[in-house]
Each structure stands twice: as structure tokens, then as C-alpha cells.
């Protein structure tokens, strides 16, 4: 059994859905197809959810944009107004419209997890209907009943034991060889919907692979594989054809956007290979990520993490930045759910880089200011070069002032 994951860019219009069907039709054998919301629909739903929660008048307008986007795709794929494939997407649209008409509760995160999943519910109902209409028999699985999580809304934790049992019942392959299901969303035992964190569909694909003992996972992207840099930024970027799990997990943590950082662990734990391939050129080999017996040479890989905040803390009483101070700083970061992207300390200063969230930040900085003098640079970027060469560093840094520099044997990082 294999898992295919199609992200928003691959199903951004009717042509994308047709292309998905053509990729799927080429593949015999058992297949689970994980789909995320179409195009940029999750971003649009986030705006709609905010408007709904604040009860501002824009809800209706944003919902209409969401509805029109999907209706155009549905009209294109199912031109006959009586086509039964239109029924389920229409039901989801009405359900969302009714929800946005209700009074929101007091919890934003709870409401978020009620609104945002409609992107995936719509995309999978359209994809499943289109495949069936074109002779590609399949079952649509509402993953919320089988992938079971806690109620930590917007960043739910999946319970692997219960989910394994349930998923094995759902994906039994007795009456079909294909399933279509939603990425990114899950459900609690009491049937509340949850989400797994933005861009979480890759993670869903990896979890299902782990739970169902898949032979492999393929993520279909608009790039030809994992690349040595973002080709939009770096014309010389090349595709890396083979990569060990360990390297992939490091790259995604350093900010390479090609795969979600949580994707690798469930696959590595069961030795399931991950393929990253282009939906624009499905016959090309792309990248395979797995364990290799031999050493794999890797080119320098350049990763640019934008919109960073560099903070430098100096204890007000001139005491050393030692273990106690560090543990206090780490505890504060954890409380605000901020992730350290880089850190460096000296006797009486501690510098670190985090993703810039203006709202959170004010409170966070105010809290630190009680004990520390705080200096910061916003709008900086964190540049990482894995397997660096001096030449690559010169090229990347050229002319930009470096605020912090750090090098290990394999990795060089610069805040610029
Ligand atoms: N649709 C969700 C998002 O855009 C999940 C995903 O794309 O993986 O965050
Ligand atoms: Mg997406």
C-alpha cells in the first residue's frame, strides 16, 4: 500500500484535479490519497474565522469568496447540474455558511478548528467525486473519525494507539483499492474537530503511513524534489536525488519549506521511504528520503528564514548568564510557545533568534525586561548553509552586515 499526498498548489484549480486523477490512474495497487485544502483556501478561511470571531461584517464577503472559488471548480469538473458529485461539496458549503451565522464561543482556537477544516472537507469531496466520475473507484474517508487526537486545538496531538486501531478498520481495502482523505485535520474521542498545525498534511500522510505500514509515501509538489536552495531565490539550485532521514529532519527544522518538520519521524520509525516529486513532471525521479547503508554526498544547501527577530538579553544586575538564568529564559520561551531558531551566549549576554510575531512579542519582551536589558533587531533573516563551502558563504553573505555568526562542522548560520 502506498500513500500519495497532494498539497494546495497541486489542486488550485480544475486542471489540478484533472492532473491529480491522471497521476493516480497511472498507479496500480492500493493507494491512500491525502489531500489538503485547494490553493490558498486555508489562508482565506483564517481571515474568515478571524472576522467571525470578532463579529465584523466581512464574514459574509469572505465566505462568498470561498464559495465562489469552489463553485467555479465544481462547475468546470461537473458541468451537468444534476451530477450527484455536486451534492457533498454543496452540503459542506451550506454547513460552513450556517456555522458562520452562529454566535462564536469564547475560545478562538476552538472556533478555528471548526472553521478551517472546511478547506479539506471541500477539496476531498471534490477530488473523490471527480475520480469516481472518471472510472477511478474510491472511498472517501472522513479522517476525523479515525485519526484521534487530544483537544489541544490548532496543534492537536494524535493518539497513535487508538488511531492505529481505528485507521486499520477504516482503510481495509476490502471493497476498493483507493481511499481519499483529508490531511491536516483530526478529531477527538468526543467528535470535536482538531487541526495539526499549518501545513500539517504532510504530517498526516506520514502518520497514516506509520499506522497502516505503508510501503512508501509520495508528496507531490510544484518543485522537482528537495532542492539545494529555493529556485526562486537561487538560480543555481539543484535537485538532491537521495537524502538520509536525518538530513531531511535537520533541513526542515532549519526552515526548508519543502516538507513539514514533523513528517520524518513517523516514517523513520518504520523505515518507510519518502518520495518528493513534481506533479508537473510525474515521470521525473524527484528525491527519495530514507536510510542508506552507504555515505551520501550532499551539496551545500542554502536555507533562508525570513521575518526573524534577534533579541539580546543582558542581566540588569550584571550577573553571569549561567544555567539558572538560561533555564528561566527557556521556561519563558516555552510558556509563550516560541521556538528558538538560533542561540549564542557570552558571559553576560544571551542572543537568540525567533520567528517574529508582533502581537505576542510585546508581552514577551515586557516580561523579560523585568530582569534583563533587552535589545532587538526585527526584520532580520536567518541564513543557514548546510555542508557549507567558503565560496558559498561569500556568495550568500555578500555585502550584508552579519549580526550573529555560528559554525559547526556541517552547518554555518548567519543572522543578517
Ligand atoms: N491546508 C492546510 C494549510 O494550508 C494544511 C496543508 O496544506 O498541509 O496549512
Ligand atoms: Mg496548504
| Low-pLDDT residue intervals, each spanning 5 or more residues | none
According to DSSP, the number of beta strands is: 16
- Give the strand content: 15-25%
Bound molecules: aspartic acid, magnesium ion
Question: What do you see in this structure?
Answer:
With 416 residues, the protein is of the alpha/beta class. It has 2 domains: 2-214, Acetylglutamate kinase-like (Carbamate kinase, 3-Layer(aba) Sandwich), CATH 3.40.1160; 301-415, VC0802-like (2-Layer Sandwich). 38% of the residues lie in helices and 22% in strands. It contains 13 helices and 16 strands. An 8-stranded mixed β-sheet has the order 3-4-2-1-7-9-10-8. It has a 6-stranded antiparallel β-sheet with strand order 12-13-11-14-16-15. It has a two-stranded antiparallel sheet with strand order 5-6. A hairpin with an 8-residue loop joins strand 9 and strand 10. Magnesium ion binds next to loops.
List the SSEs and their pairings.
Elements: E1 2-6, H1 14-26, E2 31-35, H2 41-54, H3 59-77, H4 87-101, H5 108-115, H6 118-133, E3 139-141, H7 160-170, E4 178-182, E5 185-187, E6 193-195, H8 201-212, E7 216-221, E8 242-244, H9 245-254, H10 264-268, E9 274-278, E10 287-290, E11 301-315, H11 323-335, E12 340-345, E13 350-355, H12 358-369, E14 372-386, H13 390-397, E15 404-407, E16 411-415
Parallel strand pairs: 1-2, 1-7, 2-4, 3-4, 7-9, 8-10
Antiparallel strand pairs: 5-6, 9-10, 11-13, 11-14, 12-13, 14-16, 15-16
This protein binds aspartic acid (ASP) and magnesium ion.
Amino acid at each position: 500500500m502506498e500513500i500519495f499526498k497532494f498539497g494546495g498548489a497541486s489542486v488550485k484549480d480544475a486542471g489540478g484535479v484533472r492532473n491529480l486523477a491522471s497521476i493516480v490512474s497511472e498507479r496500480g495497487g492500493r493507494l491512500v490519497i491525502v489531500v489538503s485544502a485547494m490553493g490558498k483556501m486555508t489562508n482565506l478561511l483564517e481571515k474568515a474565522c478571524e472576522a467571525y470571531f470578532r463579529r465584523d461584517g466581512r464574514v459574509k464577503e469572505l465566505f462568498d469568496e470561498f464559495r465562489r472559488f469552489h463553485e467555479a471548480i465544481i462547475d468546470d469538473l461537473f458541468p451537468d447540474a444534476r451530477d450527484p458529485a455536486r451534492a457533498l461539496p454543496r452540503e459542506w458549503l451550506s454547513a460552513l455558511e450556517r456555522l458562520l451565522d452562529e454566535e462564536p464561543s469564547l475560545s478562538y482556537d476552538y472556533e478555528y478548528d471548526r472553521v478551517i477544516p472546511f478547506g479539506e472537507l471541500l477539496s476531498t469531496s471534490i477530488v473523490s467525486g471527480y475520480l469516481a466520475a472518471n472510472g477511478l473507484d474510491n472511498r472517501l474517508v472522513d479522517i476525523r473519525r479515525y485519526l484521534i487526537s487530544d483537544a489541544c486545538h490548532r496543534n492537536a496531538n494524535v493518539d497513535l494507539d487508538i488511531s492505529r486501531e481505528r485507521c486499520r478498520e477504516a482503510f481495509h481495502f476490502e471493497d476498493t483499492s483507493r481511499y481519499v482523505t483529508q490531511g491536516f485535520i483530526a478529531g477527538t474521542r468526543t467528535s470535536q474537530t482538531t487541526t495539526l498545525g499549518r501545513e500539517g498534511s504532510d504530517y498526516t500522510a506520514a502518520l497514516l503511513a506509520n499506522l497502516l505500514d505503508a510501503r512508501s509515501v509520495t508528496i507531490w509538489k510544484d518543485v522537482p524534489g528537495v532542492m539545494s536552495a529555493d529556485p526562486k531565490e537561487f538560480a543555481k539550485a539543484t535537485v538532491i536525488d537521495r537524502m538520509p532521514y536525518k538530513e531531511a529532519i535537520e533541513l526542515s527544522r532549519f526552515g526548508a519549506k519543502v516538507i513539514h518538520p514533523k513528517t520524518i519521524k513517523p516514517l523513520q520509525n518504520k523505515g518507510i521511504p519518502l518520495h518528493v516529486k513534481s506533479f508537473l513532471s510525474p515521470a521525473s525521479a524527484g528525491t527519495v528520503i530514507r536510510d542508506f547503508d552507504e555515505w551520501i554526498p550532499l551539496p551545500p544547501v542554502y536555507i533562508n528564514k525570513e521575518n526573524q527577530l534577534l533579541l539580546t538579553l543582558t542581566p540588569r544586575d550584571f550577573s553571569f548568564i549561567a544555567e539558572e538564568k538560561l533555564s528561566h529564559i527557556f521556561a519563558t520561551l516555552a510558556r509563550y510557545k516560541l521556538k528558538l531558531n538560533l542561540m549564542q551566549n557570552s558571559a553576560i549576554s544571551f542572543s537568540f533568534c525567533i520567528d517574529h510575531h508582533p502581537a505576542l512579542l510585546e508581552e514577551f519582551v515586557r516580561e523579560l525586561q523585568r530582569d534583563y536589558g533587552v535589545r532587538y533587531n526585527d526584520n532580520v533573516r536567518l541564513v543557514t548553509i548546510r555542508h557549507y563551502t567558503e565560496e558559498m558563504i561569500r556568495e550568500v553573505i555578500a555585502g550584508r552586515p552579519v549580526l550573529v555568526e555560528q559554525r559547526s562542522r556541517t552547518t554555518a548560520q548567519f543572522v543578517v
